[in-house]
Amino acid sequence: MKTFWIRTASAVVYAILFLGTLLSGYLFNNFHLGRILFGAFLLFVSMGCTFEFFRIVKHQGAKPSQVLGYIYAACCLLALPLANFNLMLMAFILFPTTFALAAIVQLWKQSEQPFRDAAYTMIPLLYVALPLSLMLMLFSNYSGPLMVLMLVVMVWVNDSGAYIGGSLFGKHKMWVRHSPGKTWEGTAFGILVTIMLAVFVGPLVVPTVAWYHWLVLGFICSVVDTLGDLVESMLKRSVGVKDSGNIMPGHGGFLDRFDSLLIIMPFAFAYITLFTII
Predict the structure, then answer these.
(1) Is the dihedral of CA 235, 239, 245, 250 positive or negative?
(2) pTM, full prediction
(3) DSSP, res 129
């Protein structure tokens, strides 16, 4: 019972921080202030995820350039949402330069696999900071925070639906190697309830987005959510750790909570931008 209350309390704190900063623009009737507060929260999350990633790969004997990794992640999250198209194009051109710099730094490190360590230095930029910056970039208009809210809720509903469906109907294991608890029945149930939520609730939250766009977004979120969870499980199992951290007692670390969103955001952002639905 004590564990239950600890898990509940940490989940409530997480929800208040996430949703409070996400919707702060509406609460204070100041869209720009809301973007700053949510950006500050995402910067905190980005640094936490980066710290946990570096700690995990150290179990493999890796020696990434941690200071450089933190700088890359922070610059990406702070600069990319403010950039116009030309600056974004320049940023992508600079990616090879940032890797080259990470490789040059390895000249002063005693590493047996310097290019592996240079690659590990870059991964938080691509795996963590870039998806979080895309989330902040959705704040381009007044509906942006509500779109992010729906994406987050769809992830939560899919996770809950998959757990409930797996508990009630689960018989066939989905991916024993990376996540023994997942079943095909649970995954299918999660996808179904997520799409239903997207189609029926999405148009009420963001009326300017047609129901068929919500159907696609619901499918994207539910499928990629499952894959994102498996990716993080693969990372942890490869080094023999159960949780990425303990920032949230009973729930794990930053990566444990944001693994799915980090994978979902590039796909969701690409669809939203391609069809200019907000």
Answers:
(1) positive
(2) 0.86
(3) I
